[in-house]
């Protein structure tokens, strides 16, 4: 059965039909839509940054982060724990609805270098299932807890269809150094293409939330565009 959107594209041209058909076959529809939406922008912005938030969703801080990102029209990536997404599925759904990327940070935050293959697989796949139930697509990125990775972790991630995604700017917001310190650390280190690590779960993240508006305002003023990460 040919989906209706594909019929509409047929009018435009045969090459588009083939491209869209392949894309739809290779990944779930929702992700195909996201990818199609993001790819042209990623190619045109000269200065761009990827904001990422780990360890949520959290009923207070994730909701606040989502509201701030929405206010500034910024899209980011949420590396969620499966156990938190299972508890607060509406926040995973909201992140997806607002155009953010929702990706895999394992079920319960173990050091993936120290677990068996069976545990690795269940940590990743149970999280995949929980996130997919809210977003409609399977995450392609895996962020290992603590950034703890090695060749075995990468190989196992690849076997599950995942790319390991770390970061390049770490303001250590989780240590609660003060809102202005978080702001300063991010703004001093960001370059085009940076992946910024922040946290919307796993503890008191009020300093991260408070730092966010200044970070967004300043980076926008510097001409940055914000993209989510899909690992496609
Ligand atoms: Zn984490």
| Pattern of helices and strands | HHHEHEHHEHEHEHEHE
Which cofactor or ligand species appear? zinc ion
Mass-distribution shape: globular
What count of structural domains? 2
Number of helices: 10
Total number of beta strands: 7
Poorly predicted segments: 1-40
Q: Provide the residue-averaged pLDDT.
A: 87
Q: Roughly how many Å is the radius of gyration? A: 18 Å
Architecture per CATH nomenclature, i.e. the level-2 architecture of the largest domain: Alpha-Beta Barrel
Q: How is the biggest beta sheet arranged? A: 5 strands, parallel
Fraction of helical residues: 40-55%
Give the helix/strand class: alpha/beta
CATH superfamily of the largest domain: Glycoside hydrolase/deacetylase
Sheet-strand content, in percent, reads 5-15%
CATH class of the largest domain: Alpha Beta
The third-level CATH topology of the largest domain is TIM Barrel
First-residue to last-residue Cα separation = 26 Å
Task: Give structural notes.
By secondary structure, the protein is α/β, with parallel strands linked by helices. It folds into two domains: 1-41, no CATH class; 45-226, Glycoside hydrolase/deacetylase (TIM Barrel, Alpha-Beta Barrel), CATH 3.20.20. It is built from ten helices and seven strands. Strands 1, 2, 3, 6 and 7 form a five-stranded parallel sheet that branches. Strands 4-5 form a two-stranded parallel sheet. Helix 8 links the parallel strand 4 and strand 5. Helix 9 runs parallel beside helix 10 (206-221). The longest helix has 19 residues, at 117-135. The protein binds zinc ion. Zinc ion binds at residues 54-55, 105, 109, 145.
């Amino acid at each position: 059965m040919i989906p209706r959107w594909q019929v509409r594209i047929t009018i435009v041209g045969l090459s588009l039909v083939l491209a869209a058909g392949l894309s739809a076959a290779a990944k779930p529809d929702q992700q195909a839509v996201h990818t199609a939406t993001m790819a042209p922008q990623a190619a045109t912005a000269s200065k761009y940054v990827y904001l990422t938030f780990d360890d949520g969703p959290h009923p207070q801080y994730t909701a606040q982060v989502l509201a701030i990102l929405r206010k500034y029209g910024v899209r980011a990536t949420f590396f969620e724990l499966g156990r938190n997404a299972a508890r607060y599925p509406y926040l995973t759904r909201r992140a997806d609805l607002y155009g953010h990327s929702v990706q895999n940070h394992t079920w319960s935050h173990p050091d993936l270098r120290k677990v068996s293959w069976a545990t690795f697989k269940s940590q990743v796949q149970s999280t995949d299932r929980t996130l997919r139930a809210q977003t409609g697509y399977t995450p392609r990125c895996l962020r290992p807890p603590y950034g703890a990775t090695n060749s075995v972790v990468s190989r196992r991630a690849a076997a599950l269809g995942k790319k390991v995604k770390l970061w390049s700017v770490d303001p250590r917001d989780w240590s609660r150094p003060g809102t202005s310190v978080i702001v300063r650390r991010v703004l001093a280190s960001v370059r085009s293409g940076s992946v910024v690590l922040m946290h919307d779960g796993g503890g008191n993240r009020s300093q991260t939330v408070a730092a966010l508006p200044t970070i967004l305002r300043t980076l926008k003023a510097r001409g940055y565009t914000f993209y989510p990460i899909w690992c496609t």
